[in-house]
Amino acid sequence: MSPALVIAVDGPAASGKGTIAARLATTYGLPFLDTGLLYRAVGLEVLATGGDLADEAAADRAARALDADRLSQDARLTTGEAGEAASRVAGYPGVRAALLDLQQAFARQPGGAVLDGRDIGTVIAPDAMAKLFVTATPETRARRRWRQLRDRGDDISFEAMLADILKRDERDAGRGSAPMIQASDAVLLDTTDMDIEQAFDAARRIVEAARARHTL
Ligand code: CDP
Ligand code: CDP
């Protein structure tokens, strides 16, 4: 039996990791999990129950109660507010612990899986066959996210978007629990000067090289 093709895609906000990961999953016929949605759902749940994002116990409870099978295609999950709330609750060790098993079970599926997030290559699937760390300059990422939000009618200035991105980078990379960091065996993919097609082609070549190494 050929080894499971587990692909770990990590990186900061609006680097393109989600688009690339979803396309890799389609290309290789693998199940795909956007792990950011789990943290976004927990953050929104805390807000919805009138909680305060600084209330660690409320966030822990929301994470333990999360039903990942029922993560709907709720448009609120993709808002800037949800991203910000996600990054606040993602710093709590209890939240990360509550979401660990379901992510690791997803990664262990026969044949493999694609997961994208911040700690896939380091914590969730350290033995993944292919690991990518996708990045781009903060200005490029802010422009991409600003365009995405503008296209759906959200009114935010580019300067505010850049400030959000920088704050989130700092919080995600600086936290003690599973910080955003490139795994030592991940391949860095800087998409600053690439369009999404070029970025996807580069990602596919990285995965092909990893597969070739594993079948030697
Ligand atoms: O798409 P974008 O990068 O903006 O956000 P996301 O991937 O949905 O993640 C939202 C937030 O969840 C991040 O800023 C992280 O704080 C957190 N997150 C995490 O800590 N670990 C993951 N595996 C995925 C997301
Ligand atoms: O998942 P993540 O937050 O890292 O980013 P994404 O949602 O996949 O990408 C953010 C936006 O940037 C999307 O509209 C992508 O199509 C776009 N993008 C791009 O224009 N060029 C790239 N090289 C990568 C992403």
UniProtKB/TrEMBL annotation:
InterPro entries: Cytidylate_kin, Cytidylate_kinase_dom, P-loop_NTPase
Annotated residues for binding of ATP: 11-19
Any one annotated GO CC term: cytoplasm
Location of the Cytidylate kinase domain: 7-203
UniProtKB keywords: ATP-binding, Cytoplasm, Kinase, Nucleotide-binding, Transferase
EC number: 2.7.4.25
Domain of life: Bacteria
Stored CDD domains: CMPK (cd02020)
GO molecular function: ATP binding; dCMP kinase activity
GO biological process: pyrimidine nucleotide metabolic process
The reaction(s) this protein catalyses: dCMP + ATP = dCDP + ADP; CMP + ATP = CDP + ADP
Cellular location(s): Cytoplasm
Membership in a protein family: Belongs to the cytidylate kinase family. Type 1 subfamily.
Entries under NCBIfam families matching the protein: cmk
Protein name: Cytidylate kinase
UniProt organism field: Brevundimonas variabilis
Name of the gene encoding the protein in the UniProt record: cmk
